[in-house]
Amino acid sequence: MALNAKTLIERYGQNISIKKSSDSDLILTKAFVQPLRCDWQSELYGDYAEEDKVEQFLYIGLAEHQINICPTTAVIIVENQDYVVKKAENVFFSGKAVYERAVLEKA
After folding, report:
1. pLDDT tens-digit profile of 53-78?
2. Which domains does the chain show, CATH number per domain?
3. Where are the beta strands (DSSP E) in the chain?
4. Potential cystine with 20: which of 7, 12, 24, 65 (Cβ 3.0-4.6 Å)?
5. What stretch of H or E contains 8?
6. Which residues are within 8 A (CB) of 70 and not within 5 positions of it... i.e. 6 or more apart?
7. Which tens digits make up the pLDDT trace of 32-46?
């Protein structure tokens, strides 16, 4: 299971950079970053874009980068856009971290 998730992320994910803190090295990797919406919200009709709310994004990346241990300082960079981590956690299967998911907001 972990190998399949890693393979999918590495093959189909977007090129991203992770900066865990201001003094850490930049990590170049792949992940999925997409708008976080409820099932009933549709980008076709614009009903997901509530004016008074900050748009959030779903991050799915490799568990080995462990942004969940530094969520207040980590910055995810996708296509020159910085995102701050609001919440992050590993997803486990049979006791092994398969991938990491997070909620992001534009910086």
Report:
1. 788 999 999 999 999 998 789 999 99
2. 2-37+53-106 (2.40.10)
3. 14-19, 26-35, 56-61, 75-78, 81-93, 96-106
4. 24
5. helix 2-12
6. 20, 21
7. 999 987 666 555 555
